[in-house]
Amino acid sequence: MRDSSANHYERAFEGWLIDQQVPYVRADEHKRIGTMRQSVKNFDFLLYAPLGRRIIVEVKGRTFRGTTLAGLKGLECWVTRDDVRGLRAWQKALGPGHEAAFVFAYRAARVDVDFDGRDVLRLDRDCYVFLGIRIEDYQRHMRVRSRRWQTVTLAADRFRAHAIDLSALLA
């Protein structure tokens, strides 16, 4: 992995990409494009999926404090409105063949977690599981979490209905 300054969730996701031999480009998320009045938040990764598809990814790191991933319960999935606007803007700007998605990187807070058969990445002493959700699905079902902080989220049943393993996102 190249960038040791990235947060541990992004490093873990990059490790997963390397392990799975998924071609990708890492974006410089510290820069924004646009004018001072209206800028667009950069995404984190551009993945080169089969059949010429490109997936624009924004990684969101969360801690999973539960004991099992069966039923995908207890998983936080909030993002900022700026995250949603940024992914949508990039998808539109990059055009056909590009799709945008959030990747939620969950770090297990406990050592005795039942991962329910999901792909687990071990990085140092931590275990991570990744779930993706396409921007269309997220935006269609999002609801306000905090007006003050400009965050949105999905109801648990909506998240469970639309969250997919990364292998499905890449297929």
Automatic annotation (TrEMBL):
Domain of life: Bacteria
Stated name of the protein: HYExAFE family protein
UniProt source species: Anaerobaca lacustris
